Amino acid sequence: MSWFTGALKVVYPKCVWSIDKEDRVFLTFDDGPDPTATPLVLNVLKKHQVKATFFCVGKNVVAHPKLFGQIVNDGHAIGNHTFNHENGWKTPLNTYLDSISETRTLFNTKLFRPPYGKITAKQRRYILKRNFQIIMWSWMSHDYRSNRTNTCILRSLKRVKGGDILVFHDNHKTAARIEELIDKTITYLKENQLIFDTLKPHEI
């Protein structure tokens, strides 16, 4: 866990950072659906018969409804990731809440993840009042960083343990690398006797 994640965990104790299941890990994807990256991810997940949780951006759902439908039809879980991928630290409360509500009109879910992991304390209180569960993470791939190789990311998987929530991104920044990265991630964690599961509100 990075210093940034550790600091946020102290500030936001009511957010979900991991799940109390020692034999399971929770694969999550942020920012889609993306017409280039998301189909690659879905193909790898289908190949390995693994289900994941996709935190979708509302405007991308509007732009790519068939791709969003494929995510749902393949049996993956869905989470709200705002409509315009707003940074909560730089966005007024009402604008941020309206963005979440606009996405909620497209699909109903109790799972919410703030883009960049950045929300204010006031935003967090209002989001929780709207019966969302705020899902953070215990392991971040940093797959969006061009200076971080797949080899480096895969090496860091040795820190993953049961109950961890893993974050990857199905967006234009990861499209060139995501297929290999997810394929090798799933293979490695399966070899370490970990089971993949989706995030289920009633179990959190």
Number of domains: 1
Query: Could you describe the largest sheet, including whether it forms a barrel?
Result: 6 strands, parallel
Residue windows where pLDDT falls under 50 for at least 5 positions: none
The overall strand count is: 8
CATH superfamily: Glycoside hydrolase/deacetylase
Q: Tell me the Rg in angstroms.
A: 16 Å
Figure out the total of helices: 8
The CATH level-2 architecture is identified as Alpha-Beta Barrel
Cα-to-Cα separation, first versus last residue? 20 Å
Descriptive keywords:
two-stranded parallel ribbon; globular; single chain; 204 residues; alpha/beta; 8 helices; TIM Barrel; 38% helix
How is this structure best described in words?
This protein is an alpha/beta fold and 204 residues long. The protein has one domain: Alpha-Beta Barrel (TIM Barrel). It has 8 helices and 8 strands. It has helices at residues 3-11, 37-48, 58-63, 65-73, 93-104, 121-129, 150-155, 178-191, and strands at residues 24-30, 53-56, 77-80, 111-112, 133-134, 139-140, 165-169, 195-197. Strands 1, 2, 3, 6, 7 and 8 form a 6-stranded parallel sheet that branches. It has a two-stranded parallel sheet with strand order 4-5. Strand 1 (24-30), helix 2 and strand 2 (53-56) form a beta-alpha-beta unit. The longest helix has 14 residues, at 178-191.
Write the layout of secondary structure elements.
Elements: H1 3-11, E1 24-30, H2 37-48, E2 53-56, H3 58-63, H4 65-73, E3 77-80, H5 93-104, E4 111-112, H6 121-129, E5 133-134, E6 139-140, H7 150-155, E7 165-169, H8 178-191, E8 195-197
Parallel strand pairs: 1-2, 1-7, 1-8, 2-3, 4-5, 6-7
